[in-house]
Amino acid sequence: MTNQPTVLNPKELGLIECIHASHHLLSQDMKSYKLVNYTFLFFKKGDGDLYINEKRHFIKMNRFFLLHPGMTMRIANKGENLIHYYHIEFRKVHVHDSTFNHLQGPIYAAHPSALAHHTENLVHKPKMEGNQQLKKLRLQMLTYELIYFLHTDQHTISQSNIKIAEEFIQTHYQEDINRDMLASMTGLSPSHFSVRFKKETGRSPMDYLTHIRIEKAKELLTTTNDRLKGIAKSVGYQDEFYFSRIFKKVSGIPPTVYSQTKRHRIVNLVCAFNGHFHALNHIPFASLNNNAVEGYRLYTHKNPIYFSKGRGIYEIFHSLLDKLADMNPDLIICGDFPAEFEESTKHVAPTINIPWAKQDWRGHLQQIAQLIGKEEEAAKWLNEYDEKAHTAANNVRKYINPVDKIMIIRIYAGQYRLYGKRNIGQVLYNDLKLTPVEEVKQIGKEMNQQIFTLDNILKSKADHLFIMTSPDKYSKQLLRQLVEDKKWPNIPAVAKHQVYHIDNMPWLEYSAYAHELLLERSVTLFKEHALRTNNSTNTSI
């Protein structure tokens, strides 16, 4: 199934009739059926396979297909999410030529976003017309626009340089790709295409495909613990033994050996993850750290590398990349970085993104343990932590009423912020089983804080109030504004002398090692406060 520069003879445009246009959300597999009309499919989102005459094609975002009458199609949904796709059927009226025969199967668009826009318009815009005749007219008009765009878009591909085929290989390497298919996308003969491709890339089309597949396999071998069979399939090889032979031919060593030797020089770019490495008794090759006094610095096996104080992670990123490139790392760990930054690190070394918000600290620890081969150590550490948390929770109850309400406030960046059930809240509320103030329920599970007003704090019913204040002048002014307000003594925690001014670290760090420290420090804090209160009471008597 290949594309040709000519899609339709313009003289036939008046003989095309659209008979169906719809948008679908598919949650299950679609059974196979035989097509009666020409069918244009646009997959906007989803993970699955489209089978055309039982030949598999991968479903990805912004993929297009044209199917002919008599073909069979079915869809297999491989993911947990819905497959979003557009389905358009049309027919030729009183036309008996083979113009469409040159265009069937996958459509390789030069301008996929524009083609997607035309498709969505065809489905949605006619519905806006109130009159049935106008709906039909609008539908027909948009059908002509779509077909005309297909014609001009394919012409653009035929006139473009070899970059079209190169980018296609980079994004569809896991599919069944051959030289003739790639040549047809550019409108060149296979032999001419091969000569041009090698001249511009330094490799033949098939060698370039192999290169991309092996590089992707190296990335998976470094960043996952997937089985070799699964990795082979995910990069386009159905036979894992053939994949192993190709991998060794290109890399010089088998993939199994590669996976065992390529995780020694790990660079960690998430400051909080240092606590996980500490808990696992593993020192990364290099790790990023930050504090208010020194700013960001990259600790290496030699000397720390300092960056300009007062600059954020994104401001130092390009300087950081230059330093990383000189280190030649095997793996870079990041978390919820912007896509363009993550792509930049991938040019330096294989990069794995450990989701910061969507996983809790236990998930972070376990994923890091998988990367460094310490799953058993992580499981043991978590079991021991749970035992310590249980003991600490029992000890805390000796010094605090379990129904007392806790509130955690941080003052920084010119604002008051209420902390929820992550960071310090994870230890106080989840591990020590203490009760948060009602306002904490408003904070989403993936959020650790929300902006809070002075009035909100003064109206709170907190029995115990934790306050963290940044060292800058403005934050200290906000603290004074809070404690000097005439309503400040009305807060139960203030009236009971149960206000605790604590440092940001380690109370804010979201890691295994920090939480282990906080179990002990929380018990100590409540114990010492209870002793002071008792001594004060005895003295007054």
UniProtKB/TrEMBL annotation:
Signal peptide: none
UniProt entry keywords in alphabetical sequence: DNA-binding, Transcription, Transcription regulation
Family annotation (Pfam families): AraC_binding (PF02311), HTH_18 (PF12833), Peripla_BP_2 (PF01497)
GO molecular function annotations of the record: DNA-binding transcription factor activity; sequence-specific DNA binding
Keyword Transcription regulation: yes
Domain HTH araC/xylS-type: 163-261
Domain Fe/B12 periplasmic-binding as annotated: residue spans: 265-530
Domain of life: Bacteria
Descriptive protein name: AraC family transcriptional regulator
Organism: Salipaludibacillus agaradhaerens
